[in-house]
Structures are given as C-alpha cells and as structure tokens.
Amino acid sequence: MDNPTVGEKIEAPLAETNVTIQNYAYTPASIEVKKGTAVRFTNLDKTGHTVTADDGSFDTPLFSDGESQTITFNQIGEFPYYCRPHSYMKGKVIVVE
Fold first, then answer.
1. Pairing state between β 37-43 and 52-53
2. Residue 60 in contact with residue 43, Cβ under 8 Å?
3. Does any domain span residue 90?
4. Residues annotated as binding site?
5. Where does Cu cation bind (predicted)?
6. Model confidence pLDDT, tens digit, residues 9-38
7. What are the φ/ψ torsions at residue 63 (nearest 5 degrees)?
8. Domain, as residue range, for 51
9. Global pTM?
10. ω before 4 within 30° of 0 (cis)?
11. Cβ pair 35, 73 in contact under 8 A
12. Tally of CB atoms within 10 A around 6
C-alpha cells in the first residue's frame, strides 16, 4: 500500500452530496454544486442503472440495488446525464465556482 509522504498533495473532494435513483428517476433531477464536489449516486431500484454524461465525460458501470457510484466534478459547467439502459432517465449537475 502506498502512503502519502509529508508535503504530498492529496486530492480530496471539497464536499459530498447525494442523488438517489428510485422508481426509474434521479432525485433530485438537477443539482447545483461547487467545483470539487463529489456526487454520490445511490441506486434504490431493483434493476441496474448507470450515470452517463451526454458528452461522454463520465460513465459509471451498471450498478444495482443498494450500490453507489461517486463522481467528483472538478470543472465548472453543466453536465447533463442519463441512464444507458433507460435513456428516458435524465438528470443534470451544474457546477459553479
């Protein structure tokens, strides 16, 4: 296991927020976060889902009931996303300074 050395910079999210996936929907569907925030997506449905950016900048593997995936947003902008198996499921992360 690698251990950080004194003075080594460790990248860590500034904050964390949560989005749940339930009844084939992301809740909340749109969120605004500060740059550097980690967003945890937790699936509460019995079927698998993904969180896939419209522009391809992020794409989680399929994850199941009770599982989570976390994405850290380090760029300012709007990041619409959808679920690959259920393309009608849509959400958006808005990242501000």
1. unpaired
2. no
3. yes
4. 49, 83, 86
5. 49, 83, 86
6. 445 556 899 999 999 999 999 999 999 999
7. -130, 150
8. 15-96
9. 0.85
10. no
11. yes
12. 4
In CATH, what number is assigned to the domain containing residue 75?
Answer: 2.60.40.420
Domain for residue 43, yes or no? yes
Torsion of CA 57, 21, 62, 83, to 10 degrees: -50
Handedness of CA 36, 33, 78, 43 (dihedral sign): positive
Nearest residue to 64 (alpha-carbon basis) of 43, 81, 83: 43
For 28, other C-beta atoms within 10 Å of its C-beta total 13
Q: Is residue 10 included in any domain, yes or no? A: no
The larger pLDDT score, comparing residue 3 to residue 15, is at 15
Token duo for residue 34:
């500060």
Tally the domains of the chain. Answer: 1
CA 89 to chain centroid, in Å, comes to 14
For 62-71, write each residue's pLDDT tens digit.
999 999 999 9
Residue type, 21: I
Residue 6 in domain: no
